[in-house]
């Protein structure tokens, strides 16, 4: 898919002060990639000061929606931090302990972590939406187009 490329190289995103470098496992590159459960992409922002330090992305194709799981809705605080036991999804995706700690703290304090849903339509057009969640919440809210 082109979602990872879009997030990293779209001029509108860069012009908003985001220079995103992936820090998690490799993002999917096409529809035929092996399905890996969990977070689709985690990025550290090396761009302008005053922007979020981390961006977590979930990519959806066409009309697919964020799923509801035992751990809460995809991209919710409880889904990301796995409040239902086991290793949290952040640790499953990111290897650097400092980054993991910073992301967890940012989520717990509702700052410094940007959650986005990137959608790829059937023609390959990509759009992104900012999502919000609150600590201990199992749901997310659409906060409008991003960037």
Topology at a glance:
Layout: H1 3-9, H2 11-15, E1 20-22, E2 41-45, E3 54-61, E4 68-69, E5 72-73, H3 77-81, H4 89-93, H5 97-108, E6 113-120, E7 126-132, E8 141-146
3D architecture notes:
By secondary structure, the chain is an alpha+beta fold. 23% of the residues lie in helices and 28% in strands. The protein has helices at residues 3-9, 11-15, 77-81, 89-93, 97-108, and strands spanning 20-22, 41-45, 54-61, 68-69, 72-73, 113-120, 126-132, 141-146. The strands form two sheets. It has a six-stranded mixed β-sheet. It has a two-stranded antiparallel sheet with strand order 4-5. The radius of gyration is 14 Å and the shape is globular. The protein starts with a helix and ends with a strand. The mean pLDDT is 88.
Give the count of helical stretches: 5
Give average pLDDT, whole number: 88
The total strand number stands at: 8
Uncertain segments are none
Question: What does the main sheet amount to?
Answer: 6 strands, mixed
Tell me the span between the first and last alpha carbons. Answer: 19 Å
Order of helices and strands: HHEEEEEHHHEEE
Structural class computed from helices and strand pairing: alpha+beta
| Percentage of β-strand residues | 25-35%
Shape by Cα distribution: globular
Radius of gyration, whole Å: 14 Å
Strand order of the largest sheet: 1-2-3-6-7-8
Helix content: 10-25%
């Amino acid at each position: 898919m082109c979602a990872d490329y879009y997030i990293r190289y779209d001029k509108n995103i860069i012009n908003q002060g985001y220079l995103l470098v992936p820090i998690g496992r490799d993002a999917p590159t096409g529809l035929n990639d092996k399905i890996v459960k969990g977070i689709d992409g985690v990025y550290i922002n090396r761009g302008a000061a005053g922007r979020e330090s981390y961006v977590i992305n979930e990519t959806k194709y066409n009309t697919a929606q964020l799923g509801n799981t035992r751990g809460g809705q995809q991209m919710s605080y409880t889904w990301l931090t796995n409040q239902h036991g086991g290793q949290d999804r952040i640790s499953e995706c990111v290897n650097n302990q400092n980054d993991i700690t910073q992301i967890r703290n940012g989520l717990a304090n509702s700052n410094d972590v940007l959650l986005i849903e990137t959608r790829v339509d059937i023609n390959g057009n990509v759009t992104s939406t900012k999502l919000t969640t609150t600590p201990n919440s199992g749901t997310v809210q659409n906060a409008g187009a991003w960037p």
